[in-house]
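Model: You mentioned two targets. I'll fold them one after the other.
Researcher: Yes, keep them separate.
Model: Target one:
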Amino acid sequence: MRPSLRLLDPLSTRNEPIMQQDYERYEVEDFEVWQLLYIRQEQQLRKSASVTYLEGLKTIDFRANEIPRFKKVNEKLQSLTQWELVVVPGLIPDRTFFELLFNQKFPATTWLRKKSSLDYLEEPDMFHDVFAHVPLLTDVFFVKFLLGLSQLGLTYFNNAAALEILTRIYWFTVEFGLIREQGQLKIYGAGILSSLGETAHCLSKGATRFEFDLERIMHLDFRKDVFQEVYFIISSYEHLYDMIPALTRKMNLFFDKAN
């Protein structure tokens, strides 16, 4: 879920990825896990997920009884936003993550958790990467936001402090963001969309929520092993994309001064 954990070994993202989804290797338990997770999350998300996410879920045509085939998903994404999935093994370096995003490629694993670990994983699996992330890759402003982050990531990939700021932005938006749609709070962050517990918690009375505050997010730490302590609300995906120029100015000003 954290950007620094989503990259391949360095390779040219202009070439075909060196890894592929081996669909024939999925076992019975894999299909059962996908179905269990899909059904329980889809039922929960009908009321709580962003309309854009739900529309994307239908457009991509995910189904409970079928593990998605990346080739079919990519055909849909290419026709809508010119993005595609590429297979990654798991933990991978920062620069290639941003190179992939810059080239409109979203990294995703192909392995699925076991039944014994339905509710918590230290490292995101395919359900998180595909079920939770892919539907929003159908939205033009959302993918433009990802492109904007990737440009900053490539600019500052040698600067650990800058990358930490970009990680925080990614975390509180792409992974754990909320959106206000027609006066109601909805979920768009993939870390929430793929988690039964976080889905219920983030919209509950016990959760702390703020309007989107770029300056605050840039300096806010987070934990990965608990429900999030705070969530930030955007007004639209265009609003999210429109934040990129302000983030760019702040990054340039801060790190130019630091140098």
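Model: Target two:
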Amino acid sequence: MVLLMHRYIYTAIIQRCTMNAVTHNRWAWFSQALTQHKSFSAYLQPLIQIFSPRWSTDAYRAQVVDIRDEMLGMYTLVLKPQKGLLDTQWPAFKAGQFIELMVEKDGMRTLRCFSISSSPEYYSKTGLIELSIRIQQEGRITPWIRKSLIVGSIVNLSKAQGDFVLEETPAPLLFIAGGSGITPFRSMLQQQAMSPKSEELDIHLLYYSRNSEQIAFQQELEQLQIDHPNITIVFIDSEQHGFICGDHIQSFCPDYMRRISYICGPSPMIQQARKVLAEQGLSKEKIHFEFFGSAPIVSDFLDNNPNQEQTSTVHFHTSNLVSISDKNTPSTLLEQAEAQGLTPVSGCRIGVCHQCICKKKSGVVFNTRTQEYSDTGSEEIQLCISVAQSDVVLDL
């Protein structure tokens, strides 16, 4: 009863204090001055966790309701985000987004990012979400999740993140998936098929797999194509047909020029698909992509700037340390910082959790995830996916 009273009082106070930003900031200052925590809920967290394990102020609890194998080396976690007196309802998401899954292994909290493979409409109707996870054979977490979590286990989720989502446009679409890169497309296809305007769909999916035994959701996708004639799915066995090329695009999707393209899969496949589509005449604005895992460090900065030095200096301004960046053996700014003995906050190391954001005071960096260059001025960057292209000064 005392715990619930604290909860009600805290909720009422917070609602009152969020009436405007100034008041909220004053309340945060007051809470920190009184408890050494940014909020009273963070202060009460250890007590609340006695009654509600895994409860957290910075994440949402979810219960495992099913675990099913999709194919060799890939499984799906079916999760039910919790809601009630202590649990805030997990917010809505868009098809194509991902979440951060937090699990506790050997007493340590570990975070991994996974795309949501089910649709927002499915969540709205059932209260469930699905994460379809490829097992990394040498990984510490993906095999452990399959072996250790059981029905009834409690895990933590972040809210959905990411901008690999469909544009608000009725334009025809071309999806190009490689391996487990099918998961965000499954969410998109489910969502579009359940839409009241599903008869207006015009989606063409090219799904590349390692071989004919490595096709996730094959029966489901085949049935989706039967139920919706305006969805076309082509399964491509890379062992038999090779990797994506211009002939594939022209043969499997002849009207590709009128479509907006979305690509998801391993980094080399995405790089090749982007190159092929560009060679076929598609503009950059019509090509969207999402890397599964670390993006490759590939830059044409030196080719476009022949007078640029082969090396550049990275100055960690606050720490008064300097690192030399060699264009022939590029490394991320996070790796360079760690090589200098610095310990900046980081998480996923692939550019999705945004924990390693740092202020760049000057210089040009290359973003390996977006494949874009910064300007020369001051801005916030992500250390784990930023590579120096000129002399750079960081507020670190």
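Researcher: Noted. Anything on target two?
Model: The longest strand covers residues 60-71.
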